[in-house]
TrEMBL record:
GO biological process terms held by the UniProt record: cytochrome c biosynthetic process; cytochrome complex assembly
Membrane-topology descriptor: Multi-pass membrane protein
Transmembrane segments: 40-58, 64-85, 117-139, 145-171, 178-200, 212-234
InterPro entries linked to this entry: Cyt_c_biogenesis_CcmB, Cyt_c_CcmB_bac
Molecular function per GO: heme transmembrane transporter activity
GO CC term, one of those recorded: plasma membrane
Similarity field: Belongs to the CcmB/CycW/HelB family.
Protein name according to UniProt: Heme exporter protein B
Recorded name of the encoding gene: ccmB
Function: Required for the export of heme to the periplasm for the biogenesis of c-type cytochromes.
Thylakoid found in the keyword field: no
Subcellular location: Cell inner membrane
Main location: membrane
Organism domain of life: Bacteria
């Protein structure tokens, strides 16, 4: 697999080579994930279980679920993404592919961006697709469900991009999952607040354009800065391993 991956990164021209390398990284991560379906299913099952069990453990009243439903779904989505972050670089680190990735002539931050995109496609996008069904389960109205899906569509890539920084920093450490949670959850709080607040504003009939614009700004900022930070963190982790 490592040999095929290295060959896929080679190209005669720098511009074509970068695009080819990003595609190779993206496709390889997808193929690797589908060879280990438990890593794909665990976050989704966790997402469904949290949303399903919350009404049983707190209150099944319709008025309460309509008020708290957006928060329940967003917290469950956040924790589901966090659950999958430990595998973002772990398998590549174990089989030596990550060292090959760092040694490639292409910019490392673009290859990291491709890995983060693959992580979102495998983890965040399924959560967005499941959200309408679970939104109806917690008695959200049609407009609120649509806004919920839109906020998750904007917000979950931010979670993957920010999470890649923590996954890179904790690479190779013992008890990395606990440390990863402590590092990343505070950075997730603004996305959680605005994602939940946007859905609540929509349920009250208020305008949500401002909140959506802020979430879009979060996404642009994460796309701009997170790949550079993740690439630097990977170099630090590999130099210390």
């Amino acid at each position: 697999m490592t040999t095929e991956f290295t060959v896929g990164l080679r190209a005669p021209e720098a511009s074509v080579g970068t695009a080819t390398a990003m595609k190779a990284v993206f496709v390889r991560d997808l193929k690797t994930a589908f060879r280990q379906p438990q890593d794909l299913l665990n976050p989704l099952l966790f997402f469904v279980m949290v949303v399903t069990l919350f009404p049983l453990g707190v209150s099944p009243e319709v008025s309460f679920l309509q008020q708290a439903g957006s928060g329940i779904l967003w917290v469950a989505a956040l924790l589901s993404v966090l659950l999958s972050l430990d595998h973002l670089y772990r398998h590549d680190f174990d089989d030596g592919t990550l060292e090959q990735l760092v040694l490639q002539p292409q910019p490392l931050f673009l290859l990291v961006l491709a890995k983060s995109l693959a992580h979102w496609v495998l983890t965040g996008l399924p959560l967005v697709l499941l959200a309408p069904v679970l939104g109806v389960m917690v008695h959200l109205e049609g407009n609120s469900v649509a806004v919920l899906c839109l906020t998750l569509l904007i917000g979950t890539p931010v979670l993957s991009l920010i999470g890649s920084i923590g996954a890179a920093l904790t690479l190779g450490l013992r008890s990395a999952g606990v440390l990863l949670s402590l590092l990343i959850i505070p950075l997730y709080i603004p996305v959680l607040i605005f994602g939940t607040g946007t859905v609540m504003a929509a349920s009250e009939g208020a305008s949500v354009e401002g909140q959506l614009a802020l979430m879009g700004a979060f996404l642009v900022l994460a796309l701009t800065l997170a790949p550079f930070a993740s690439a630097a963190a990977l170099r630090i982790s590999l130099s210390n391993s």
